[in-house]
Specification:
- The structure holds 2 protein chains of 2 kinds.
- By secondary structure, chain A is an alpha+beta fold.
- Chain A has helices at 2-12, 17-30, 33-43, 54-65, 69-79, 82-89, 102-110, 117-130, 133-143, 153-164, 168-175, 186-191, 196-200, 289-297, 303-308, 331-345, 362-369, 451-463, 520-530, and strands at 206-207, 209-210, 224-230, 233-240, 243-248, 272-280, 311-321, 324-325, 351-353, 377-384, 392-393, 398-402, 406-417, 426-435, 438-445, 465-469, 472-475, 480-485, 487-490, 498-501, 504-508.
- The N and C termini of chain B lie far apart (48 Å).
- Chain B has helices at 55-62, 148-164, 178-186, 197-208, 263-269, 283-293, 305-314, 330-340; strands at 7-9, 12-15, 20-22, 30-32, 47-51, 67-71, 76-79, 82-88, 96-102, 105-109, 131-136, 168-172, 193-195, 232-235, 251-256, 273-275, 297-303, 318-321.
- In chain B, 25% of the residues lie in helices and 25% in strands.
- Classes of the chains: A alpha+beta, B alpha/beta.
- The interface between A and B is medium-sized, with 30 and 24 residues.
Chain lengths: 531, 341
């Protein structure tokens, strides 16, 4: 446990990716195998099911610390993490016990499944007495709650690949799936031979740059393809050796998040690799990215979710066909092959072609660009017809041309403390626009300010609070912010009658007084424009 | 309490009987200043009174020519029948609790205080009173300080590791209070130490006033960058994310504050190490300090005022929260100093 705690502590102390990877490597090179599998399980979100309820753990901690519930809630509000709050309020440990390994702790916890509450309590109190401050925190993390420590799966994958003399894509593939630390050994998971490794391997994605200025600089319009830029998850679908693998752009294997796409096995020929966008599709047009995100976040995909938010792969490129690497072929040739594949697959419910847009000159495209939102698109992708499929972010052949966000100048009216990293600061804001003499709230936004600005706004809020309702403060209407959003809809659930999509703070309008903020009429005008 | 020897007004803690204000945040005629931090010592008063060890800093911050009378701890002075005296608060050099007595009624305004002995300022001394005015900067049970030696050892070890990696160690904290505490307790130094202008000014000012501090060289534009390798750099927190800090590449950053007890607070600052070192009382020490005053009534000023006064009330101590302008403004003062330096 000491070794793992030390790793946790060290990871917490650095923001540098390389240092994190080095720390992880150090751990995976030196820890005993039976601990490594547990560490890996925690880092990849496979904490075993809770044997003890968080509420009980909290209750015992309060009892030991001698503080009332309300004070615990206040404390939690300032810490933003249950496991950490408990570790901070507990009295100093009184005994020094023998260090138990991570595997031993989990073994012991596993044994509590059918124990009585008294037994559980005794076990936990004993553990708290023996462990030191930060160990208690880590121990509490094992007991309950999510285990997020600023280490992405990508970093863990990289570290293990480097210690095991393998590659990230191989390790990534091996970490996927349904292994669990009680029954799987580190050795068989990471080091055994596995023929599927090669088959699952994705190509590096070709990433585009945002276009600077106007499209006129791109030369003759007929040398270019234009497609909608979809607002989903950029993905690669691989079908090799009778298996489907789906990779996200972040080199994450997300196959099991999209079971409905497995039927592509029956529609693709072996040795096919496609590039495209995963989006959730309603009856006629794409659903918002929110829906997709909710789906991605779910551990279990229920039937209901699959029905409500069906996923579709919109294909726009092909890198491999019949086992042959096509990346050096021209865009238009790849496009031809892709069109044939999608058409002959004939599975439009899950597999669509990203249509090419017709335009006779750049001006026509510019006009269409203004209407991108009607098509639930973020703008255009422009691809040169002779472009190869390059690796990584390269300039020149692929460009993204995004729509400008909608925006409105609004007044900060309510504030609430953030959570986690921002638990002490007022960072969650509600914004309002004028409706006659009244301010009507219409959007909440969390992000978009720099840390320095957040500090200043927080300072203002703490000194200009009119009222407190629980955690929410009513703030003197004085600060004006430009709020950007991606979409706007009529809504009966909102007081303003309007719901905006992905609101975020574009900038702090220090140049505007509160009277100069926008009105509900301005919002309605935007609504009419885009409905 | 039946009387109001001290009152909370929109500009200060005020003794009307003596016409004296304690730590006013607006200009008044006569002010007693508990300590020289900028949220307690404001510009523009006609006459000031403070502990003698606050003098050099008050003059630095408020002007060399202010009208300032000083007193020793325990020295009594009477104004219109009201007896005043200053007592050690242990917060920073010269910090004082103000004891006010009239007609057998005793109030103590404690300003900011801590119970830990920091090795530089005179340690806190409990003063019996009827009414105690306490801060509550860290009035939550999550704030419990480790022993000072433990923190100093952690800092030494961090510095050692950085030296081994040829990195500079940039140690940040308030120029007034925290820096002297660090300088005093990290001696003898394990390697070269340099100071940012704000830290340097404060250190030299206190040395000139006769305090026992070593000379720490100032970092200037002309300082050869090679000397920073493995050195300890003392600086205010406001240097984070400035170009000043870049000259020390490669470096590691450490920040000394009570807030560092919570992971989120450290992570927000995007610093490498947080050291839990505070010049305020922690949860346990607030309780100890209040119990030792034997006060029947406690007023809670800056910090977790609502929470802490509720906690006291539930424990059977009459308590009320008071709105003041104290707290959290030292950062701004640091910025001003940097401009001067």
């Amino acid at each position: 446990m000491k070794r793992f705690t030390e790793l946790f502590l060290q990871l917490d102390r650095t923001n540098k990716t390389n240092e994190k990877v080095e720390l992880l490597k150090g751990y995976f090179l030196s820890a005993p195998d039976e601990d490594k599998i547990w560490a890996l399980a925690l880092f990849t979100g496979r904490r075993p099911p809770r044997k003890i309820k968080s509420a009980q753990v909290q209750e015992w901690a309060l009892e030991l610390a001698g503080i009332p519930h309300w004070l615990f809630r206040e404390s939690y509000g300032s810490v933003g993490d249950l496991a950490e709050t408990i570790s901070l309020i507990l009295p100093e440990p009184t005994e020094t016990g023998q260090d138990r390994s991570l595997a031993e702790w989990f073994g012991a916890l596993g044994g509590l499944r059918n124990a009585s509450d008294e037994k559980k309590k005794e076990f936990i109190l004993n553990a708290w007495k023996q462990l030191s401050g930060f160990e208690i925190f880590v121990f509490n993390k094992l007991l309950m709650g999510s285990f997020r420590i600023g280490v992405s799966q990508t970093l863990v994958t990289r570290a293990i690949a480097e210690t095991a003399g393998s590659t990230p894509s191989v390790i990534s593939h091996r970490l996927m799936g349904s292994w669990e630390p009680y029954t799987t050994s580190y050795k068989e998971l990471i080091h055994s031979d596995n023929a599927a490794d090669e088959y699952s391997k994705p190509y590096p994605f070709y990433l585009s740059h945002a276009i600077q200025g106007t499209v006129d600089v791109l030369g003759p319009h007929h040398e270019w393809f234009a497609e909608w830029k979809w607002d989903g998850i950029r993905s690669q679908i691989i079908y090799r050796d009778s298996e489907i693998y789906i990779w996200s752009r972040g080199e994450e294997l997300i196959t099991d998040k999209f079971p409905e796409l497995l039927i592509l096995k029956d529609h693709l020929s072996d040795g096919t690799v496609l590039d495209g966008e995963l989006i959730c599709f309603g009856e006629t047009k794409p659903l918002s990215f929110n829906v997709l995100q909710t789906r991605i976040g779910r551990k279990n995909l229920t039937k209901k979710i699959l029905e409500e938010a069906p996923a579709v792969f919109i294909a726009y490129d092909i890198m491999e066909f019949g086992g042959k690497d096509l990346r050096d072929e021209e865009q238009q040739i790849r496009r031809n092959i892709l069109e044939n594949i999608v058409n002959s697959a004939n599975a439009p419910a899950v597999f669509k072609l990203s249509p090419l847009l017709e335009f006779n000159n750049w001006q026509e495209l510019k006009d269409l660009h203004l209407r991108a939102r009607e098509f639930a698109a973020e703008g255009f992708m422009l691809k040169h017809k002779e472009s190869k499929y390059l690796a990584g972010r390269r300039k020149g052949h692929w460009w993204k041309w995004k729509t400008d966000p909608l925006s409105i100048d609004a007044v900060l009216v309510y504030a609430q403390k953030g959570s986690g990293r921002r638990a002490e600061l007022y960072t969650d804001y509600t914004f309002a626009v004028w409706d006659g003499e009244k301010l009507v709230p219409f959007a909440k936004a969390y992000s978009g300010l720099t840390d320095k600005e957040l500090g200043k706004v927080d300072y203002f809020i703490k000194r200009n609070t009119l009222e407190k309702f629980g955690p929410v403060r009513t703030v003197k209407p004085e600060l004006v912010f430009e709020i950007g959003f991606e979409g706007i809809n009529a809504s009966t659930r909102h007081k303003s009658g309007i719901a905006v999509r992905f609101p975020r703070i574009l900038r702090w309008r220090l140049d505007k007084t509160v009277k100069e903020a926008d009105t509900i009429e301005n919002l309605r005008a935007l609504l009419n424009q885009f409905e | 309490m039946k009387t109001t020897l001290l009152k909370f007004t929109p500009s200060s803690i005020f003794c009307s009987k003596a016409d004296i204000h304690i730590d006013p945040w607006k200009p008044v005629d006569r002010a007693i200043i508990t300590h020289a931090h900028s949220d307690h010592a404001k510009f523009g008063c006609k006459h000031y009174l403070a502990h003698k060890d606050s003098e050099s800093i008050l003059r630095l911050r408020l002007g060399e020519d202010i009208s300032l009378q000083t007193a020793e701890y325990g020295e009594e002075f009477t104004v219109n029948g009201v007896r005043f005296s200053l007592h050690p608060a242990g917060h920073i050099i010269g910090s004082s609790q103000v004891r006010v007595e009239h007609n057998n009624e005793v109030w103590v305004a404690s300003g900011d205080y801590k119970l830990q002995d920091d090795g530089f300022s005179v340690p806190f001394e409990p003063v019996k009173c009827d009414v105690f005015i306490t801060e509550s900067t860290f009035g939550l049970p999550i704030y419990k300080w480790p022993r000072q030696e433990v923190v100093m050892d952690d800092i030494r070890e961090w510095w050692l590791q950085n030296r081994m990696n040829d990195k500079a160690s940039i140690l940040m904290g308030y120029s007034l209070g925290k820096m002297q505490r660090l300088i005093q307790n990290l001696q003898p130094f394990d390697g070269p130490v340099y100071a940012h202008g704000a830290t340097f000014n404060m250190n030299e000012r206190l040395r000139a006033a006769g305090h026992d501090l070593p000379f720490i060289p100032l970092i200037t534009r002309d300082t050869d960058r090679k000397v920073f390798k493995g050195a300890l750099i003392l600086a205010p927190g406001s240097v984070l994310n400035t170009s000043w800090i870049k000259k020390f590449e490669p470096y590691s950053t450490g920040y000394c504050s009570g807030w560092m007890a919570v992971r989120g607070a450290k992570n927000r600052k995007a610093i490498d190490r947080g050291f839990v070192l505070s010049d305020h009382a922690d949860w346990n020490d607030l309780e100890t300090a209040i119990a030792e005053t034997a006060a029947q009534k406690v007023y809670v000023t800056h910090g977790y005022t609502a929470t802490y006064s509720r906690w006291l009330s539930e424990k059977g101590i009459e308590a009320a929260e008071v709105k003041t302008m104290y707290g959290q403004e030292e950062d701004l003062a640091e910025e001003e100093i940097i401009i001067e330096a």
